[in-house]
Amino acid sequence: MRTRVLVHHAVSESLDLAAGTCSAMPEAGGILLGAYRGADMEVTGRTDPGPGDERQLFSFTRADPLHDAANREAWHASGGTVSYVGEWHTHPWSGVEPSSTDAATWRSETKRCGRPMVFALVAPGEWGLFVVRPRWPRPSISRLVVLEAGDVGVVHG
Ligand SMILES: [Zn+2]
């Protein structure tokens, strides 16, 4: 089944901004917050890197407690509908293609969560969205394209 993802405008704009500023910087990243709407998903927020994260030239390791705190806060504020649905990180030196490490990490995270997850890659000048679905023998990774823009956000599918 095809998964459509509604990305709220504030999230799109912040990823546009990251795409404009990430070139030749250490990698940045964070989590994506959102909700499931039947077979579809909605991304309503994201976190920025914190001082406890490890930002290297060619890797980003999420370690700052702010990401978990933002997840808990979103969960409580939404009455249990909004939470961690995926991750984003930058590729300051390349494009919007998952590295083999990215693909392996995304698949194991999707397996662990047992539901479709959404991942964003941000490169200089562009960003892209991927949905990873639990599948046997291994989760499938699909890159989404922009379908339409509306009042709330942009639909990718
Ligand atoms: Zn990567």
TrEMBL record:
One of its GO terms (molecular function) is metallopeptidase activity. Residues 21-121 form the JAB domain. It holds the Pfam family Prok-JAB. Coiled coil: none annotated. InterPro entries: JAB_dom_prok. GO terms for biological process: proteolysis. Keywords: Hydrolase, Metal-binding, Metalloprotease, Protease, Zinc. This is JAB domain-containing protein. It comes from Neoroseomonas eburnea.
